[in-house]
Amino acid sequence: MRVSGIDRHDTDILILGSGGAGLFAALHAQQTAPEGTRITIAVKGLIGKCGCTRMVQGGYNVALGGGDTVERHFMDTIHGGKWLPNQDMAWRLCEQAVVRIRELENEVGCFFDRNPDGSLHQKAFAGQTADRTVHKGDLTGIEIINRLMEKVLASGVEKLQEHRAIGLIPNKDGSALSGVLMIDMRTGRFRFVRAKCVLMATGGGPSMYRYHTPSGDKTMDGLAMALRAGLPLRDMEMVQFHPTGLLAGDHTRMTGTVLEEGLRGAGGQLLNHAGQRFMFDYDDKGERATRDVVSRGIYAEMRKNNDPRQEGVFISMSHLGPENVRQKFKGMVKRCADSGFDLAAGKVEVVPTAHYFIGGVVVDVDTRTAMEGFYVAGEDAGGAHGSNRLGGNGVANSTVYGGIAGDVMGADVRAMSLRDPDESVLAAEIDRATYPLSRKPELVLPLRKQLQDLMWEDVGVMRTKAGMSRGLQGIAQVSNALMDVGVDDSNLAFNLTWHDWLNLRSLCDISEVITRAGLARENSRGAHYREDFPEPGAMEGSTFTVAKQIDGAVEVSQEAVQFTIVKPGETILPKGEPETLVAQ
Fold first, then answer.
1. pLDDT tens-digit profile of 536-569?
2. Dihedrals phi, psi of 337, to nearest 5 degrees
3. pLDDT band at residue 2, thresholds of 50, 70 and 90?
4. Catalytic residue among 264, 273, 368, 389
5. Does residue 253 surpass a pLDDT of 90?
6. Which one is catalytic: 135, 163, 164, 242?
7. What pLDDT score was predicted for residue 54?
8. Share of the chain above pLDDT 70, in %
9. With contact defined as beta carbons under 8 Å apart, do 82 and 146 qualify?
């Protein structure tokens, strides 16, 4: 297709994604931008009906008193991230979460669970030293997204729904972002949207693994676009596996979906194939250890098991009282019942499942990137979590930094103007997307399954140099094979096979980055565990990986962590503070 044949559209602020980060950014940009500013949301699916924030079950971390403080939340985040977080980002997350939760309640209209005295009910997730997680039962994300969706749909924000972003297009000299190339999935036509400010909040979606929690259309598109645009990506080896993904068989897409952390926080027990509780063999906190530790414990037990009828381990809640479990975890009980399991009174088989992508684009505390006019918030942004995200910090991160991005773009847009695109890059991105349309149609799904199997086996919960080297070869084989797969181009409207092809292209690109970053980190920190380098290394000498695509090849370097607030071995908590406020 010629560049001259595509649709063109101008706006002032363009937001990619409609999760917590994207919707909050839209609302805040409306408040801070000059009157008459055009604000547009583009989303791969439908506003409020897609993305990962809607799938959040557990809750929202915020220090609201009862002995808890922002300082304690911050130290938990730093300890959980094994001293790799950008400390300024982590501090702002913890500090602004207090502001954002009040905004969610009083301005957005969210109803969270409360104590008898009317205060917000909070519970403890793994790795936290206080009851900190605000929630709406175990369906917190639905409550947040539904209320945000209502606000945005009632606003004057322009909506480009079922529009897939496929390329970041710079201006003519490459110094700034001009706009974003998209596919209108309803028609199959290309649309180039030019904007003064662009926020990427497309979320992560590590669905390149055999077991994964995000929906199948979450395929790391944002980070793949940023990689091609030459932007630096940090901590890309850090893929968080949630320890308890439902294992319901190959016949259902329920396999891999999360059984939330609150189950273990409430006293749920993990049992191996012999019916033995095993997590205290791996950590003195047992099932309440951080997600990375519990995932490795489960994976280790799976490798010990030689019973082909049981692949994972079991979570048991019945000792807490079936009626109590049904009342406290209605969503989880129903999810398990839909798949034929009784969570309240029986046992449910679980497996570590790829859940959250901790790494992302290098940004500053105001969500700005190295490219003028381009901002990143939410799961697409790296830095706040370091090597391990605490449960409950994800949706807090999205809403906090989404709001910050909206405020910053609303201010920055005053001094910005629309930029003409580099037409050669625009043409190259169109050629890239249309590549399979001129080849003989073949099946894409077997290649995606091949990628998922090799990433699980070779670049998964526990890694080695030999395994990751083998993984790189496998990724290259899938990538090369994909280039021989064509797509029927007789009708491009809702051509899901075409989008499956584009999805797999993104997954292959980011799988390579994950693997190369994993090879570069020769120690074990948080979500990244090397069996051949099991020691974490000196905390005071901590470095983070930075991946960049240069002349078509991925190169990985390492940069020193800046301890701007607290150094390893130190704390900002007052002297004499108890180690934990959580009832043991």
1. 999 999 999 999 999 999 999 999 999 999 999 9
2. -60, -40
3. low
4. 264
5. no
6. 242
7. 74
8. 99
9. no
| Sheet with strand 197-200: strands edge to edge | 158-161, 39-43, 13-16, 197-200, 374-376
Three-state DSSP state, 85 = coil
Rounded Cα gap, residues 86 and 78, in angstroms: 9
Residue with tokens 């009317």: 118
* Angle value at C-alpha 96, between 93 and 100, nearest 5 degrees: 115
Show the tokens assigned to 340: 């034929």
Query: Alpha-carbon distance 179 to 165, whole Å?
Result: 10
Higher pLDDT, 54 or 46: 46
Question: Each residue of 18-28: pLDDT tens digit?
Answer: 999 999 999 99
CA–CA dist 98, 92 (Å, integer): 10
Give CA–CA dist 530/167, Å, rounded. Answer: 34
Task: For residue 264, indicate whether it is catalytic.
Answer: yes
Given a contact cutoff of 8 angstroms between Cβ atoms, the answer to whether 387 and 358 are in contact is yes
Burial of 182 from C-beta contacts in 10 A (0-12 / 13-18 / 19+): buried
Look-up: residue for tokens 């959040």? 56
For residue 584, what pLDDT is reported? 67
CA distances to 53, 55, 303, 357, 521 from 381, rounded to whole Å, are 15, 19, 34, 9, 20
Among 6, 415, 418, CA closest to 177? 418
User: How high is the mean pLDDT of the chain?
Assistant: 94
Q: The tokens of 493 are what?
A: 């409207």
DSSP codes, 374-437: EEE-GGGB-SSSTT-PPTTHHHHHHHHHHHHHHHHHHHHGGG-----B-HHHHHHHHHHHHGGG
pLDDT at 435: 97
Could you tell me the pTM of the whole model?
0.96
pLDDT at 98: 98
Rounded to 5 degrees, φ, ψ at 198 are -125, 130
Helix, strand, coil % (nearest 5) of the chain?
A: 40, 20, 45
Residue type for position 386: G
Known active-site residue 419 = no
The amino acid at residue 200 is M
Query: In DSSP terms, which residues pair with 548 in a beta bridge?
Result: 555
**Rounded CA gap, 325 and 319, in Å?**
10
State both tokens at 388.
Answer: 């391990």
Q: What is the pLDDT of residues 499-522, one digit of tens each?
A: 999 999 999 999 999 999 999 999
Q: What is the pLDDT of residues 161-208, one digit of tens each?
A: 999 999 999 999 999 999 999 999 999 999 999 999 999 999 988 999
140-153 vs 20-32: helix crossing angle, rounded to 10: 40
Where residue 312 falls (left for φ over 0; alpha for ψ -120 to 50; beta otherwise) is: beta
pLDDT tens for 212-232 read: 998 888 899 999 999 999 999
Distance CA 99, CA 15 (A): 23
